[in-house]
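Structure first, sequence second, as always.
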């Protein structure tokens, strides 16, 4: 293993981590600063965190009879799920390529991880997923909706079959909607159908990557059990006050997401016109693109001041693929020019 590495982005156009490139308007920055400055930092977090739980439940339109649990980013919640489900013979299963923390959480907790390859076009291999659930009987099946790094939504019929099969085996399904602000669909409307399905989200892509705030929704009785492994005071007063402030001004972040969806469409069409480049349609704030030589293109982009993510070594299906975060109009123009010169 190696520690999680963050690329040095000093002086670069930073398009490697699916961050929202827009900052708060100056007036809201000043208002938030005053609010944070008045907090009692000498005290442990208090019941105000429950105000955030209620605000997030309302924002997400959480179903009746469900509860919500907060984490220091969705990464912490993924780790806590592995901890909560660490029983003899437990394992975690997910399609691959996918979010690396599913496998990492299993490894760190001493659980087996079973990765089921997607098809060549990054769709769910329904038969292989169902066979793997029967063979391994995993404690948790993760389904990212949309997926990272492929950025696509999988078919609802295949997802439903996987959820039903996992329910028959007595395991959990976690629908990971990290990129929900940019997606054309959500599982929230179907969440109440099944008592073994949890919905995981984060405020990172919403526009608060620096705040580190994830949330998990599920049936109350199930959430009470998972909550037993949550560390006390895992959400700081600064984190929850920032999140509350953002939700009070959710229209600002909704406008930013709308802009990024428009930029995504422009970027996709521009990538389609580059020789030797194949881009896949996206429901997230990133686009997966295959180029003739990923290492050469990545180095060329970096030399021209643009930082993206070279995912070509993550999985054989991602050969010569780059993951491009959707930035501002100006950032995208610069990235496209640098990419064209680097091909």
């Amino acid at each position: 293993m190696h520690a999680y590495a963050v690329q040095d982005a000093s002086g670069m156009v930073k398009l490697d981590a699916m961050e929202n490139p827009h900052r708060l308007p100056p007036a809201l920055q000043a208002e938030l600063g005053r609010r944070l400055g008045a907090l009692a930092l000498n005290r442990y977090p208090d019941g105000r965190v429950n105000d955030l739980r209620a605000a997030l439940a309302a924002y997400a339109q959480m179903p009746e009879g469900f509860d919500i649990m907060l984490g220091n980013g969705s990464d912490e919640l993924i780790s806590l799920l592995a901890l909560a489900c660490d029983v003899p013979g437990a394992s975690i299963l997910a399609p691959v390529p996918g979010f690396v923390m599913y496998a990492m959480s299993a490894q760190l907790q001493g659980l087996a991880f079973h990765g089921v390859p997607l098809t060549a076009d990054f769709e769910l291999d329904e038969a292989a997923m169902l066979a793997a659930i029967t063979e391994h009987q995993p404690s948790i099946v993760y389904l990212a909706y949309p997926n990272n790094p492929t950025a696509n939504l999988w078919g609802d019929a295949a997802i439903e079959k996987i959820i039903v099969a996992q329910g028959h085996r007595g395991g959990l399904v976690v629908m990971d909607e990290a990129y929900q602000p940019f997606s054309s669909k959500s599982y929230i409307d179907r969440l109440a159908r099944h008592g073994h399905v949890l919905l995981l989200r984060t405020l990172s892509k919403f526009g608060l990557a620096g705040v580190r705030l994830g949330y998990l929704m599920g049936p109350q009785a199930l959430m009470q059990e998972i909550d037993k492994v949550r560390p006390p005071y895992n959400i700081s007063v600064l984190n929850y006050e920032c999140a509350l402030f953002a939700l009070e001004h959710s229209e600002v972040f909704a406008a930013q997401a709308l802009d990024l969806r428009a930029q995504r469409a422009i970027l996709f069409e521009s990538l389609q016109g580059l020789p030797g480049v194949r881009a896949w349609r996206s429901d997230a704030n990133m686009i997966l693109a295959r180029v003739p030589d990923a290492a050469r293109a990545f180095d060329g982009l970096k030399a021209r001041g643009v930082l993206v993510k070279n995912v070509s070594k993550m999985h054989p299906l991602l050969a010569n693929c780059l993951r491009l975060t959707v930035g501002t109009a100006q950032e995208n123009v610069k990235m496209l020019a640098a990419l064209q010169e680097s091909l």
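Margin note: The mean pLDDT is 96.
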